[in-house]
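Students often ask what a holo structure prediction actually looks like on paper. The answer is less mysterious than it sounds. You provide the chain, you provide the ligand, and the output is a string of discrete structure tokens encoding the 3D arrangement of the protein together with pyridoxal-5'-phosphate.
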Amino acid sequence: MNVDFAERVKRLPPYLFAEIERLIKEKKAQGVDLISLSIGDPDLPPPQFLIEALKEEVADLKNHNYSFSQGEPDFRRAVSDWYKKRFHVDLGQNQVVALLGSKEGIANIGRAFVNAGDRVLVPDPAYPVYANGTTILNDAVPVSMPLLEENGFKPDFDSVNPERVKMMFLNYPNNPTAATADKKFLREAVDFASGNNIILCYDNAYSEVSFDGYKPLSILEIDGAMDVAVEFHSCSKTFNMTGDRIAFAVGNKQLISGLTKVKSQVDSGPPVYIQRVAAKALESYASDEQPDFLKKMNEVYSERRDLLVKTLCEMGFECEKPKATFYVWVDCKSNSMEFATKLLDVGVAVTPGIGFGIHGENYVRFSLTQPKEKITEACDRIRKLFR
Ligand SMILES: Cc1ncc(COP(=O)(O)O)c(C=O)c1O
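The corresponding structure tokens follow.
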């Protein structure tokens, strides 16, 4: 058969992580003991009480039927209760939709609202799904908003042309730069979106991975955000449930309804037992304070962060301790692919910034998803290289 990919699939950009992934595979095949600081997938397990809950919920035979496409009522209630406790935001049941991971919702929101030729504002560097899954695969046009270090890795709305823009993505705490956003910036973002009739998609996947007393905000805490915004959250990084595929979108009623409409024709919702476990995870919050198991998890990441940042600073890299996410974004002062390849030669895998967009060039992303001993060993290897 002679198959031809759809034009929108042909328009997807080359996968820039492919080369580094090929090199990693090659090293592994050569038997190199590689330390991977490249992936955004926690090494820590979900807390034990969630594993116990999962066993119980899986064993309940009622939990194996189709779920509601908007999500089980109990799960949506748990999400709105969590929002109230964590962010002091009120959400009705029709302002919540369950997702099969936030990636799915981020991609499907495009199908619901973006028409061919519409422009979508996408930060650069960024999680690649905004430009590809949401925009290009819906025949729309990604327009890059540079995230520059001198602007704290925030877009400059004054330099953005809002003509024919339908949607904008923002993500703080940010992957890959680990930058965070304060209320003033979020206020500007909401004003820009409402002033120009732009749908604001706020990706808050890392809201619970934070350090040193810093508490990330929800865009919905900003007055007027509920008129223009949808916020994406995920249990992936918060509860170390990346493979369980459970997340949620919340916010403006019409935006949630459009996303739900698309999803009702595309998937049949996350498994009921996973939604029940995720509800228990969210219910572990008694207030806007994190439960103890999350505090411990963040202590583990912050110890790893301190170790890595100290080493990088000693080697002359300018590198601040991030307040959130499990990433460290470093100006490598050279071509990011070449730098990553050099580290690979001493058995350390990192992610070249160019894979996140052209403004990611000259940076690399270190992931803190390895135990402390491995990070110590990786630091030793890197030190040798730069001696
Ligand atoms: C910024 C950001 N958003 C969304 C996701 C998707 O997470 P999930 O689909 O597991 O909820 C990721 C995953 O790495 C991410 O880094």
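Residues 40, 101-103, 127, 171, 175, 203, 205, 234, 236, 242, 247 surround pyridoxal-5'-phosphate (CB under 6 Å).
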